[in-house]
Amino acid sequence: MARSAAVSAFCVFLVLGVLTASLGASLPFLRERFGAEHEVGRVVSAYNLGALAATVCIGLLGRRLNVRAAPPVLLAVFAAGAAGMAASPGWTAYLGCAAVTGIGYGGLALTLNTAFARGFAGNSVVMVNRLNAVFGIGAMLGPLAAGAVGHTDIRLLALAAAVCALPCFLVGRAGAVLTAAPARTDAGPQDGRRARTGLQLLPFLLVGLVYAGMETSIGTWQSTQLVRDGWSTQAATTAASGFWAGMALGRLVVPQLTRRIPGRTTLPAYLAAGLGALALAAVPHLAVVAYPLAGLALAPVLPTLIAWVSGVAEVPQQATSVLTLCCMLGNAVVPAVVGALSGSGGAVVIPLVLAGACLLCLGLAVWLRAARR
Hints:
Helix 2 crosses helix 4, helix 4 packs across helix 14 and helix 11 packs parallel to helix 13. Helices cover 79% and strands 0% of the residues. The chain is mostly helical. The two termini are 28 Å apart.
């Protein structure tokens, strides 16, 4: 991949992270701007539905999609939608523009992750992790940005996102990577043909579904565990940010240390380390340390999976699209299952259920490793 395209992609992901994470923090300001009679939480749903629609369309189009043109077109859609959010005179227009912005966000996240997974040869896993770490940095800045401009006009944040996205037009060069033949990193000569079938993709999809749901479950339920352990609500919420800090740090550091080891080996190792950290979280008063360690260990799992499936699939953007959809399904289903199993039990129940989910994911990763030999 051209250096200019990679730098532009990092800038785009920073902007995506800021705007995406700012939406939730913007809700009180949106209520003030458009009136309390509106269900302002719908803006988050509209944005994510747009992202889901983009993911589904890219997956369905497959080979018919002009992948070289996709990144610049999606960047233009994102910038236009964000500018529309800034200029919207009423709530309905703002909601519709948020959905358009979400289409750009979902499409860019999918195509650029796939391009990074394809464009750096043996260094692809490291680069995909770095790309998502930059998104995480933007996500940490998003609520701060919303707080800074909210009392003036929260729409200024969307305007800033549109303005910052436009200079990143060189990201269009990333599309050239998607037209190249699939790279064979740790795959045999027939893997491209075999990966076209849903059966061969099944292990990837199941790992993605369970892992994404487990990651979301940790973010959802760790503060509840701390409250059950005697922490105040405010302290538990603040301490829960340690897991996300561990995720951001892990995506920058861990793949760099394991860059010479193939993904089929590192993926189970990351999950095994995460399982140990989650088991440690069941020890009274150690959860506040164990969850950041779990974030550090688990951080490279999803980028490694994306890089792996993109390297063996004949139509990588289609395979990544289906994997992303499975991750979204896991985000919706697994936290509810964890909540149902945890019930109103003691503080130790939650980490044990989370460890069980991690153990299941580890078993699936071992199956995936065996299936791809």
